[in-house]
Amino acid sequence: MNDTNSQFIDANVEAVKAKMSERANVGFRKYGVTTERKDLSLLDWLRHAQEEAMDMAIYLEAAIRKEEIRPFKWVLTSNLPDGVTSVIQEPEPDSGADASTHGMNGTAPAT
To answer: What tens digit of pLDDT does each residue of 75-103 get?
Structure first.
């Protein structure tokens, strides 16, 4: 693109912008103020940001732990070009159960 005046539209950026706008509206309806408020010091803002970051770390940890214990099922794939049978692990739909209840022991089923 040689035209420096044209705008690049990224669907992900647009989605985030829409979510941020909605979040600002929800915050205003809930608290009656915007982030342009003048009653908080820099330290207050930093503490708010730190609290939000700690919440995010907890959400990330919960998601990581859930992904780590997601059960797998075994799927056999045969008739590969070299005639070898391979074992592929595919995640099962999220059932809320941990892997130990699904007999996952790290070994492939017998063929």
So the answer is: 666 555 565 555 555 666 665 544 443 33
